[in-house]
């Protein structure tokens, strides 16, 4: 018999939950919501610099540029700033986030999706709120916002919705679950942080293996496969909505540093293959003992730039060294390298919460094995993957042989799996305890054992912290700078002890509260509220160490992109197109790209061939390469001479006198070492056969007469046929050349540039960037968006009317 609808029971609790999430969001991000402040997020500022040309073009024309010349001398804009009008999911995201501004919207949707997961499990609204808090305020979620990894944050946020749909489809109502799964996966893919999606798929894969095992055991494999097939259809729709973004990304990745190198002697010294360089990918690997930060946040000193108080050993050491109190306070509060772990640097630890770890361990004893099997396996996999080069045997095997795994770097971020599985199992344990305290055998003993294990670790760390060295690879620099290294190490020890004791206290408080509940001394409501508040206080306080009110500033963009004296000098040059190099840090800076066309930039997926040229030639200050890239100005970083003119820039295009034929990419790259870029074109004739090797460039000239990011127009005049080299990056998948309006072929020269054989006379050359992948992808996205809307509405309507499955495929907890 269908239960009649009841607003107070069926709707009001969810409204209250949303209000709670809004209050939490407003409390944490009040500077954003009420003071119009923002964060100086490094990666977002770099993104804005690199995207400015594309944004300006869109505002002026209403079109997508798809290519930008503002970074790395030119690259597709797919992974910088490209919109796909056919993808309607952005509107759904705005609805779900209540159109809150970035940062506030990020944490709100994280809370909402966590809540949806626990409600889908059948938990009460209040317990689901506690679960949402446990998932959302994991330190990593706030640290990545401070760093500017907004799309990573949103991709992670939607993982619980995907899991909710998957579980609900198998556990209760397939149609509503499938609709939720399709929507969650669509939005997870929308933000295009495929590394986070990849980790989610690993977790889903483990879930599938466990479910298949139990389905075979219980004789329900046919039903599971049927539902799995239909969920696969939902996944296809989700991919279809995002097809434009995924298709262009896949096409570009083959040409980027994620693709296969064409060199037989790669710059890194690793074997040639498809994917990232192994050393680069594993540079950020979590230490094995560093895993204890899941329980004790400052086990390894917190961040690479952590402020200290005036009661610290380091402050007192500065005073003893003769520093005035004001100066000593400034030195310790500006941030010191307190992190002493194995990573090159870090903005902070991955801390899931002492109470969460305690409940996770309890879950091992009381939650059904069907759940613990995949959640524990996912947690272990997460931790081992995050160890990276610190667990070579397994992780190098994964990197070399597991599909697509070598496309991703910073393997420490694999801990995102654990920050989902650990709160998940922790809340399942709390749910089980609250519902079945009378049925679980020796529950009080299991509770004490879990507290003893987790609290015991904290106690041991607190007692024996002095046995650690607290030495860091950065310490030698501190010693050379005459910093009191012994005092800094003493403060690192103090931070470890303090947080170990802190975690112990939270475990004792939460464990004690649950123990008295088990003994019937308090109600379930008090237990839920008490644990929830303790969990929030614990996580909130640690989060504030890495993202607090003091980090929010007014007019962040205006301040960061205020033109410098160097910018103003260069901008006086009104030529259509020329390039600039920022000498202090050319390849980790996109601020220059905000104002100029830069030969550098900041991006994790540069063109591989361009990276080869950076490694072999630009980093060695090869003047001929600067010349062929039309590098006219260098920003020096020296206030006395902020700008230098680069001698001999060749302009936008030029006629050459000879072709130097080479037989391989290695020869082509090496040939740039000793050549005259103004007279010679280096061409790999195995790819681009050129019959004529010598040309007469006398009385030949060419000029760029029109410029847009995706359109270039040249006019030239030559007495004889010739070979023109353009100071533009070669990218065949989208750029089409035209001679007097007719399509013609163009070739690659000098390893990265475009070239074209042209007839004598007066002619016009045009280049247009109109990749078929974008057009096709956007069309499929539009069709899929329409289909998804129809299917989701239909599935929900049908699911509401259909009686839920009597015997769910996924067993209850």
Automatic annotation (TrEMBL):
Transmembrane parts of this sequence: 12-34, 100-119, 126-145, 151-169, 174-191, 197-216, 228-247, 348-367, 374-391, 411-434, 446-465, 500-518, 525-542, 780-800
Recorded superkingdom: Bacteria
Keyword presence, Transmembrane helix: yes
Coiled-coil regions listed: none
Keywords, sorted A to Z: Membrane, Transmembrane, Transmembrane helix
Keyword Transmembrane in record: yes
InterPro entries cross-referenced by the UniProt entry: Uncharacterised_YfhO
Name this protein carries in UniProt: YfhO family protein
């Amino acid at each position: 018999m269908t239960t009649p609808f009841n607003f107070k029971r069926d709707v009001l609790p969810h409204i209250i939950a949303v209000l709670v999430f809004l209050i939490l969001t407003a409390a944490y991000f009040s500077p954003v919501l009420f003071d119009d402040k923002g964060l100086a997020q490094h990666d977002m500022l770099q993104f804005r610099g690199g995207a400015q040309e594309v944004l300006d073009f869109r505002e002026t024309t209403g079109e997508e540029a798809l290519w930008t010349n503002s970074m790395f001398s030119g690259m597709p804009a797919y992974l910088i700033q490209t919109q796909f009008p056919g993808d309607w999911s952005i509107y759904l995201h705005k609805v779900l986030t209540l159109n809150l501004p970035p940062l506030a919207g990020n944490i709100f949707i994280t809370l909402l999706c966590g809540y949806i997961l626990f409600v889908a499990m059948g938990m009460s609204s209040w317990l689901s709120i506690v679960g949402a808090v446990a998932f959302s305020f994991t330190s990593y979620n706030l640290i990545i916002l401070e760093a500017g990894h907004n799309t990573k944050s949103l991709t992670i946020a939607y993982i619980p919705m995907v899991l909710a749909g998957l579980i609900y489809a198998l556990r209760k109502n397939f149609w509503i679950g499938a609709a939720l799964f399709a929507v969650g996966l669509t939005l997870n893919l929308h933000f295009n942080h495929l590394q986070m999606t990849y980790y989610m798929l690993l977790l889903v894969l483990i879930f599938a293996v466990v479910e298949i095992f139990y389905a075979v055991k219980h004789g329900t494999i046919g039903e599971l496969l049927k539902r799995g097939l239909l969920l696969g259809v939902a996944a296809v729709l989700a991919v279809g909505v995002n097809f434009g973004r995924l298709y262009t990304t896949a096409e570009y990745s083959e040409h980027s540093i994620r693709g296969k190198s064409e060199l037989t002697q790669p710059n890194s010294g690793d074997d040639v293959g498809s994917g990232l360089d192994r050393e680069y990918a594993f540079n950020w690997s979590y230490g094995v003992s560093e895993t204890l930060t899941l329980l004790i946040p400052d086990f390894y000193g917190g961040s690479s730039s952590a402020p200290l108080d005036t009661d610290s050993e380091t402050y007192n050491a500065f005073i003893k060294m003769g520093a005035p109190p004001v100066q000593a306070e400034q030195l310790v509060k500006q941030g010191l390298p307190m992190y002493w772990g194995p990573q090159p640097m870090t903005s902070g630890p991955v801390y899931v919460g002492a109470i969460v770890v305690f409940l996770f361990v309890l879950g091992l004893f009381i939650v059904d094995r069907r759940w613990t099997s995949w959640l524990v396996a996912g947690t272990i996999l997460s931790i081992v993957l995050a160890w990276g080069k610190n667990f070579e045997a397994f992780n190098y095997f994964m990197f070399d042989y597991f599909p697509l795994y070598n496309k991703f770097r910073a393997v420490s971020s694999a801990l995102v799996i654990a920050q989902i599985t650990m709160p998940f199992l922790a809340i399942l344990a709390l749910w089980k305890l609250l519902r079945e305290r009378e049925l679980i055998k020796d529950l009080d003993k299991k509770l004490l054992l879990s507290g003893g294990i987790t609290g015991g670790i904290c106690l041991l760390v607190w007692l024996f912290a002095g046995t650690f060295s607290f030495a860091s690879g950065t310490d030698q620099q501190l010693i050379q700078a005459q910093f009191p290294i012994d005092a800094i190490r003493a403060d690192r020890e103090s931070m470890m002890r303090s947080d170990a004791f802190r975690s112990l206290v939270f475990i004792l408080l939460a464990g004690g509260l649950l123990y008295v509940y088990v003994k019937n001394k308090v109600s379930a409501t008090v237990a839920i509220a008490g644990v929830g508040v303790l969990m929030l206080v614990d996580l909130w306080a640690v989060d504030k160490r890495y993202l607090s009110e003091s980090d929010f500033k007014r007019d962040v963009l205006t301040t960061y992109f205020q033109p410098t004296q160097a910018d103003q000098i260069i901008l006086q040059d009104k030529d259509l197109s020329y390039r600039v190099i920022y000498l202090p840090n050319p390849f980790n800076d996109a601020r220059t790209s905000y104002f100029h066309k830069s030969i550098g930039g900041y991006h994790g997926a540069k063109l591989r061939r361009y990276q080869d040229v950076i490694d072999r030639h630009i980093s060695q200050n090869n003047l001929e390469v600067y010349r062929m890239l039309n590098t006219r100005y260098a920003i020096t970083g020296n206030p006395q001479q902020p700008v230098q003119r680069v001698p001999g820039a060749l302009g936008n295009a030029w006629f050459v006198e000879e072709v130097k034929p080479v037989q391989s990419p290695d020869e082509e790259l090496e040939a740039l070492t000793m050549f005259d870029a103004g007279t010679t074109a280096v061409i790999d004739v195995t790819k681009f056969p050129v019959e004529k090797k010598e040309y007469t460039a006398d009385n030949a000239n060419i000029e760029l007469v029109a410029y847009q990011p995706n359109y270039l127009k040249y006019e030239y005049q030559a007495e004889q046929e010739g070979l023109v080299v353009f100071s533009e990056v070669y990218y065949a998948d989208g750029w089409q050349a035209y001679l007097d309006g007719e399509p013609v072929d163009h070739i690659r020269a000098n390893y990265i540039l475009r070239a074209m054989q042209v007839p004598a006379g007066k002619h016009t050359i045009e280049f247009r960037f109109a990749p078929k992948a974008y057009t096709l992808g956007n069309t499929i996205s539009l069709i899929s968006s329409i289909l998804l809307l129809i299917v989701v509405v239909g599935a929900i309507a049908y699911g509401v009317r259909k009686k839920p499955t009597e015997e769910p495929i996924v067993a209850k907890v």
